[in-house]
Design a protein that fits this description.
By secondary structure, the protein is an alpha/beta fold. The protein folds into two domains: 4-11 and 253-355, Aspartate Aminotransferase, domain 1, CATH 3.90.1150.10; 15-251, Type I PLP-dependent aspartate aminotransferase-like (Major domain) (Aspartate Aminotransferase, domain 2, 3-Layer(aba) Sandwich). The protein is built from nine helices and 14 strands. The chain has a seven-stranded mixed sheet, with helices on both faces. A three-stranded antiparallel sheet has the order 11-12-14, with helices on one face. Strands 1-13 form a two-stranded parallel ribbon. It is globular.
Length: 356
């Protein structure tokens, strides 16, 4: 039976990536060595790193004056590195979910971190509107997509101070105006590749403005100067990310991917809205994530939650359980998820409705 992978991360990868990384494990770039054993100082891997950075710049149309680096530690390490490198006295955070909350918590260690706005009052089921970003903050931090609760900022905000974004779960899913940001960071394990590497896009003139001493390993300038090779990078994860970006480029880039993603999400949201058994957790279509689609059983059908989970599993649906803080179901429809998998889930929902 075909499996349909809706896991929120690590998540589905393109078959192109899987096939090419398998070959790379056997023989990387014609070197006769596996990518798992080759030196990060080898000419083959340096070429891979340089190409992966170039692909990021091309696909996201990153302007001059920005650097792309690859780091370990996941997006969670960036929660600390951002204020360490950017915050002298004050920062502002848009708190729209669990990961935004964790980033905000880390920032408080380094100075006066304030909430510009929060949706915690309604269990993060909306994106705050009409808030004011303090003009005296060193930067404004947003989390563009919320994997747990299923909300997404689909447009780049306009603010008068430097802006930082965690784009871990929607990077490369849509065009981004990089020029509006000082830092963009993203863990790879949603739309780029396997877990283990984090991409960071940095505006060069945003650095060097804090007065504190920064540990060498946690200073962005260290990694820019060393071209992501200050210490041994996650070689395999970078190679797999390169393959995913090559796949994305071959499809036509992020604008083409945005169209595909919107089509997939609309199909599933339409079924959730139509089906009497299910209710979307995010009511406002403007706030609904294109990447993580969350829904629960209608109140009068709550007893059918486990039977539906079992039925969906029997139909090959994998990873649709909602996060424990939300419950219900979550279908992550990242770039690599084919439209056929979304249709298979819709067909499963319709069949379960008919049977019940």
């Amino acid at each position: 039976m075909k499996k349909h992978n809706f896991f929120a991360g690590p998540s589905i990868l393109p078959q192109f990536t899987l096939d090419n990384t398998i070959e790379g494990i056997k023989n990387f770039a014609g070197s006769g060595l596996s990518v798992l054993e080759i030196s990060h100082r080898s000419k083959e891997f340096i070429a891979c790193m340089n190409d992966t950075i170039a692909l990021c710049k091309e696909l996201l149309e990153i302007p001059s004056g920005y650097q792309v680096i690859f780091l370990g530690g996941g997006a969670s390490l960036q929660f600390a590195m951002v204020p360490m490198n950017m915050m002298n006295k004050k920062s502002a955070y848009l708190v729209t979910g669990e990961w935004a909350s964790k980033a905000f918590k880390e920032a408080k260690i380094y100075g006066d971190a304030v909430e510009a706005a929060s949706s915690k009052d309604k269990n993060f089921n909306y994106i705050p509107k009409n808030y004011t970003v303090p003009a005296d903050a060193d930067y404004f931090h947003i989390t563009t997509n919320n994997t747990i609760f299923g909300t997404e900022l689909k447009k780049d905000p306009d603010v008068s101070i430097p802006m930082v974004a965690d784009m871990s779960s929607d990077i490369f899913s849509r065009p981004v105006d990089v020029s509006k940001y000082s830092i963009i960071y993203a863990g790879a394990q949603k739309n780029m590749g396997p877990a283990g590497v984090t991409m960071v896009i940095i505006k060069e003139d945003a650095l060097g403005k804090v007065t504190r001493s920064i540990p060498t390993m946690l200073d962005y300038r260290t990694h820019i100067k060393a071209e992501s090779m200050f210490n041994t990078p996650p070689v395999f994860a970078v190679f797999a990310a390169q393959q995913t970006l090559l796949w994305l480029k071959g499809l036509g880039g992020v604008k083409v991917m945005q169209k595909k993603n919107n089509e997939k999400a609309q199909l599933l949201y339409d079924e959730i809205d139509r089906n009497k058994l299910f209710v979307p957790t995010i009511k406002d279509p403007e706030d609904r994530s294109v990447m993580n689609i969350c829904f629960v059983m209608a109140d009068e059908y709550k007893e059918l939650e486990q039977p539906f989970a079992d039925f969906a599993k029997s139909k090959g649906m994998v990873g649709i359980a909602g996060h424990r803080s939300v419950g219900g179901f979550r279908a992550s429809t990242y770039n690599a998820l084919p439209k056929e998998s979304v249709q298979a889930l819709i067909d499963t929902m319709k069949e379960f409705e008919k049977n019940n």
